[in-house]
Amino acid sequence: xxxxxxxxxxxxxxxxxxxxxxxxxxxxxxxxxxxxxxxxxxxxxxxxxxxxxxxxxxxxxxxxxxxxxxxxxxxxxxxxxxxxxxxxxxxxxxxxxxxxxxxxxxxxxxxxxxxxxxxxxxxxxxxxxxxxxxxxxxxxxxxxxxxxxxxxxxxxxxxxxxxxxxxxxxxxxxxxxxxxxxxxxxxxxxxxxxxxxxxxxxxxxxxxxxxxxxxxxxxxxxxxxxxxxxxxxxxxxxxxxxxxxxxxxxxxxxxxxxxxxxxxxxxxxxxxxxxxxxxxxxxxxxxxxxxxxxxxxxxxxxxxxxxxxxxxxxxxxxxxxxxxxxxxxxxxxxxxxxxxxxxxxxxxxxxxxxxxxxxxxxxxxxxxxxxxxxxxxxxxxxxxxxxxxxxxxxxxxxxxxxxxxxxxxxxxxxxxxxxxxxxxxxxxxxxxxxxxxxxxxxxxxxxxxxxxxxxxxxxxxxxxxxxxxxxxxxxxxxxxxxxxxxxxxxxxxxxxxxxxxxxxxxxx
Length: 508
What we know:
mainly alpha; globular
């Protein structure tokens, strides 16, 4: 009765609306899950309970990919706790404050680090957050702004990086062609990702903020990111814990070495799962990698290196290192809970046929020859909506990219098809960027230790601004079909939009 219809999207719509209205994420997600279970079982209570917990929550927590991500999350939480207790984070904060003198410089440093860590969005979110929090706190940059910078350099950067877990995912959805070649050709047309980077740089250099983010920045400037505001800024509960003893022997190397170890080990772990050490090329190994398993391998190796290094340099003894493990786990429990609920909600919408419903709508649009030049803009909007409602970019790729490729049949060299595929990727990232139930958004909140709904509500106007300019750019691209014209036009429109908004807001 409710499957393969608009009702399939209702659970996600309810969860998102309640989260934004009530500012309470746990109950909102759970109510969305309950509605999904009731719709699936046609309001049979016993069937709904079974579907929610057995087919939904237990199945999601039994999924090997999800378990790998949870293990990675816990290990990163442990490493952050170790770096804090060893005094590495504090030492880096003191060093950064001495060398980065301005608020704009702190934002640019955060953006640069986010761009450099392009391998995986989860890895990006938690690593950039742990490294840059001391610096942004010193310059009174709000945790909401830090969360935005983290989120905007996670998926938007990964989706334009050929060597990343995201590139591997996208290439897997293109049959009958070299998916990596199509991915690279689509990069200049990925307007949302590129314009988001332009937007971040423009905001940092101009010192301009608007909407809820401006209020968050004013609040931070007045009081700073102090522990007394923990009820507003910490989704992980870490700031609510008693302050652990911090080693006075800590140096910058006690933060830098663990981070470098994490980056190197995760790269090795990912290419290992892709068969690099069995003769596969580096690029092919990344394309075929299992990011979840590779990140677990890499993070475990980095954790062992960190513990050995800390004990050897006597900043922490072995017992203190072991005590940090459950504390790191505890700090990530709320983020794990939100992820579990988000995955379960996605299972509810999947079981109701949300993907098939949206796919049918898209096929109806793209089958109209009169709209062919508007195809990229249409695909972009549909991808935004689908990713926002389901909280998944990769799921959106899986639904829409085969449809786009199917429309063009054997014409795999069509420039319009490349633009449409790029529009699908850009829209999926945009919707994922905005969605409260997106795992990447949840990770960004955890990385910045920012209240999750505060992050979503402050980021939404920024993401929508970039989305609006991207939509116009895709309309232009559908007719011009040349990236070296469309991309500069999009960049000029993005910068001009921000400066017009700044003038208008200042005048008001």
